[in-house]
From TrEMBL:
Signal peptide: none annotated. It holds the Pfam family SnoaL_4. It comes from the Eukaryota. It comes from Achaetomium macrosporum. Gene3D superfamilies: 3.10.450.50. InterPro entries: NTF2-like_dom_sf, SnoaL-like. Residues 4-139 form the SnoaL-like domain. This is SnoaL-like domain-containing protein.
Length: 170
């Protein structure tokens, strides 16, 4: 039992590390924590594959994911949070897990400020290699997704030190 608890804790730490790497833009760290042939896929609440522009968010290697995410989200402000996960062994050197998640992304876009907030569940497989756990597959199945576009948002400061705020309508 102690060994299984240590394994679950090791994978929990790796999952927290994944979220931290995303939010702090440590793209190489994400690639390094996954097997070279790991797959990563991201799905909308209706079950369709998510798109950024015309790019489907399904990747056959962590390098492909890292290459995309480092460009598409370079200036985005993000926060990824995962709740307690369920981790179960599928073999002595492989674990399957499910994590509830919620994320927020803010992008300064040409038409204004784009805000995305969503949640769902990560379904993952982790594999033991060289004494360490590596991501083998990741599938995010969103249960909700909310997008907002803010236009005409302006803060101005007056000489008197008081602050006025003007917000444009969509």
């Amino acid at each position: 039992m102690a060994d299984q608890l240590q394994t679950i804790e090791a994978i929990r730490k790796r999952k927290a590390q994944y979220c931290r790497y995303l939010d702090t833009k440590q793209w190489d760290g994400i690639e390094a924590m996954a097997l070279p042939d790991a797959t990563l896929s991201f799905f909308n609440p209706d079950g369709s594959i998510m798109l950024v522009g015309k790019t489907p968010l399904t990747f056959s290697t962590p390098h492909a994911f890292q290459s995309f995410i480092s460009g598409a989200f370079a200036t985005a402000q993000t926060l990824h949070m995962c709740g307690p996960g369920k981790v179960v062994p599928s073999s002595p050197d492989e674990m399957k897990d499910v994590w509830c998640m919620e994320d927020q992304t803010v992008v300064n876009w040409t038409a204004g400020l784009l805000e995305m907030r969503g949640g769902g569940y990560y379904h993952e497989t982790w594999k033991m290699k060289r004494g360490e756990w590596f991501l083998k597959s990741l599938r995010l199945e969103r249960t909700y997704l909310k997008l907002r576009l803010w236009q005409g948002f302006l803060y101005s400061f007056r000489d008197s030190g008081s602050r006025s705020r003007e917000v444009g309508n969509l």
